[in-house]
Amino acid sequence: MRAVDIIIKKRDKQELTPEEIGFFIRGFTNGEIPDYQASAFAMAIMLNGMTPVETTELTLAMAHSGQVLDLTGIVDIAVDKHSSGGVGDKTSISVLPMVAACGLPVGKMSGRGLGFSGGTLDKLESIPGYRVDLSTEEFKKQLKEKGIVLTGQSMDLAPADGKMYALRDVTGTVPSLPLIASSIMSKKIAAGAQAIVLDVKMGLGAFMETLEDARELANLMVDIGRLAGRKTVALLSDMNQPLGAAVGNALEVIEAIDTLRGGGPADFREHCLHVASHVLVIGQRAKNLAEGRTMAEKSIADGSALEKFRVLVAAQGGDVSYVDDVSKFERAKFVEVVNAPRSGFISQVHARGVGEASVALGAGRAKKSDAVDHAVGFLIHKKVGDKVREGEQLFEVHANDRAKLDEARTAVLSAHEFRDEFVPPLPLFYE
Ligand code: URA
């Protein structure tokens, strides 16, 4: 078998066999198939798609490209959550401590920024010292002892996805249903998750722009999960506008901490409570969503969720004093408040526009080797449906470069649209 023939077959819209998919993923993982062929392969899949059977094979091949964790004996039921990616989505940073504080241990492997969408690992690294490279042994030990882990994909778990993810970010091959489904589910299967809550985003700042596509992705992932013997549920949530106010690495961590303290933007807090309730139910810690919600709310009110976050940061080598005093986070050199150019109702805050502007400020990568700037980003003060007066604060730009600030201001201003007549707020969840 030759890699080039497999690429050509997919380029020509033919269905690949399990053997061909397995061959390609093995070769890519062990370095025999170079990045340029894997990029071409990803682009052929991006353009021509895959059948559900091919996607399942791709997922299983990636999941088994390294070790597959067995967490039995470490936790009663291994739960996990994963978002399909969006703008301002710092959900895991708040939800994991909430769930763990409710007595449900949770260990998660997260990703870095992908295209215009931010990544939990890049965000967490704005806490000095925080390690995202735990080995599998460290992962298991910390999960058993602390009941919470939030780390990156170690090279021995689904390494094929780790390599492919980095390539997709910089080769225009992110918004592909089979590539997203296999990327997410291979990580979940490899990390030993027995029960999984998927937060599938839909809208202008999601990789799936329509409810129909998001539903297809959700159903595909749920089917793959079930086929692999994992209990899986998917929520379809809105990503037309950024989630919460903060977009950018340190700014998002600060907002996640505020939320754990009982503050934070109302939409983000509500989103987290809903996701946490589902995780508590699937993890058999709560009988139903209402009970799960009460438990999650209590974890914030009694400070136990914030305390779990401290435990997490300390366990992974981070400087806990940043959790207690968020003014210690690195700040951008320039902070500019931008006011509303007119009065009216906000009818759009284009999430992708904001996400792309944030990457352009330096919060994401243009090339695989780029470093991210933790301090830059935005605080978006108004949501769709809000009534604003001309001159009222609309958003803040945090930048380390004057020229980039000017470009970001223009981009985020044009991401906002106004109407004279009433505009209803967007729902948080669709299904
Ligand atoms: N999250 C992932 O882990 N992979 C994707 O492809 C998209 C979001």
Oligomer: single chain
Largest sheet: 4 strands, antiparallel
Q: State the helicity in percent bands.
A: 40-55%
- In CATH, the homologous superfamily of the largest domain goes by the name Nucleoside phosphorylase/phosphoribosyltransferase catalytic domain
Listed once per kind, the bound small molecules are: uracil
Instruction: Write down the CATH topology of the largest domain.
Output: Pyrimidine Nucleoside Phosphorylase, Chain A, domain 2
| Strand order, largest beta sheet | 6-9-11-7
Tell me what you see in this structure.
β4, α10 and β5 form a beta-alpha-beta unit. The chain is an alpha/beta fold. The chain has helices spanning 3-11, 18-29, 35-48, 52-63, 91-101, 120-124, 136-146, 159-169, 177-190, 211-227, 249-260, 266-282, 289-301, 304-315, 321-324, 351-363, 402-415; strands at residues 79-83, 106-109, 148-151, 195-202, 231-238, 246-247, 334-339, 344-349, 377-380, 387-388, 393-399, 416-419. It starts with a helix and ends in a 12-residue tail after the last strand. The longest helix is centred in the middle third of the chain and has 17 residues, at 211-227. It has three domains: 3-49, Transferase, Pyrimidine Nucleoside Phosphorylase, Chain C (Transferase, Pyrimidine Nucleoside Phosphorylase, Chain A, domain 3); 79-324, Nucleoside phosphorylase/phosphoribosyltransferase catalytic domain (Pyrimidine Nucleoside Phosphorylase, Chain A, domain 2), CATH 3.40.1030; 331-419, Aldehyde Oxidoreductase, domain 3, CATH 3.90.1170. Residues 84-85, 111, 114, 179-180, 183-184, 187 line the site of uracil (URA).
